[in-house]
Amino acid sequence: MKLHCALLVCVGLLAGSTSAERSSFDVDLELVLAVDVSYSMEIDEQQLQRQGYVDAFLQPELVAAIRSGPIGRIAVTYVEWGGSAVQVLPWTLIDGVDTARQFSETLQRQPTRRISFTSISNALAFSRHLFRLSPFRGVRRVIDISGDGPNNSGVPAPVARNSTVAQGIVIDGLPILLPRRDLESIPDLDAYYEHCVIGGDGAFLLKVSDTSDFGEAILSKLIVEIRGPNVARLQRSEPFVRRVDAKAGYNCFVGEEMQERRIGQ
Asked: Among 41, 159, 207, 242, fewest CB within 10 Å belongs to which?
């Protein structure tokens, strides 16, 4: 009888140890930062965008947002994409000032790159794959995708969006509408992102219309995503955040049509 009880105690201790070990991988949020580095982005714009993320993870309010969650930590990976996608930083646990600073410093040291074409759909598919590889278990899973043009490579963006949302993943957007004259941009990119790219419970977008907007927009967006509130309840002091309401009638194939016209010329 004593031996039986001793075995039960050992089993209980082992089970408790396993449970504690697994809990270290639980996070409030798994976040993919999918950043556009296509050739339509100017070098200085890419640098401003990268610096926006580098600076954001050094801000006390971002760390406070992370610590305010029920678990108090998140997991983040950084991806750069054009026609294809590259994982620049692996899944990284961030639970306070030190780990946030390490993420920022590591990101700052990474070389810049440019990738041909704009495939939002490939970026979403790549991000879904990263969730499958993630060692973490997030209460929420979010893809935060930036871009300065519509999808012009791979499957149409709405197909990839629907596949992503069906897996319980939220897609938020950062459409970049800087003044430019290239053939790959459209004047209503924010509407394109609203109707064709983002989706899932609480999805929202932020618009960057000037290079001076990058830093504030990126920080605001990250804090909203980390805290995970209902966008409708956000205070008016969040000038970049735009609630998303599904509407029909927008041409989600505009990027593919533009690409086809260029090839046919």
From this structure: 159
Burial class (CB in 10 A: 0-12, 13-18, 19+), 122: buried
Residues 6+ apart with CB under 8 A from 163: 124, 125, 128
What radius of gyration, in Å, describes the C-alpha atoms of the chain? 20
Among candidates 244, 176, 224, 170, which has minimal Cα distance to 38? 176
37-55 tens-digit pLDDT: 999 888 999 999 999 999 9
The pLDDT of residue 235: 43
User: Is the model's pTM score more than 0.70?
Assistant: yes
The CB density around residue 88, as the number of other CB atoms within 10 Å, is: 19
Backbone phi and psi for residue 207, each to the nearest 5 degrees, phi listed first: -110, 135
Report pLDDT digits (tens) over 73-119.
999 999 999 999 999 999 999 999 999 999 999 999 999 899 999 99
Residue ranges in the chain assigned as alpha helix (H): 2-23, 43-56, 60-67, 97-108, 120-133, 157-165, 189-196, 214-227, 254-264
> Residue 246 in 3-state DSSP?
coil
CA distance 60 to 13: 39
pLDDT (tens digit per residue) in 5-31 = 443 334 333 334 344 444 679 999 999
Backbone φ and ψ for 198, nearest 5 degrees, come out as -80, 160
Distance between CA atoms of 231 and 1, rounded to whole angstroms?
Answer: 59
pLDDT digits (tens, 9 = 90+) for 244-263: 444 557 889 887 777 766 66
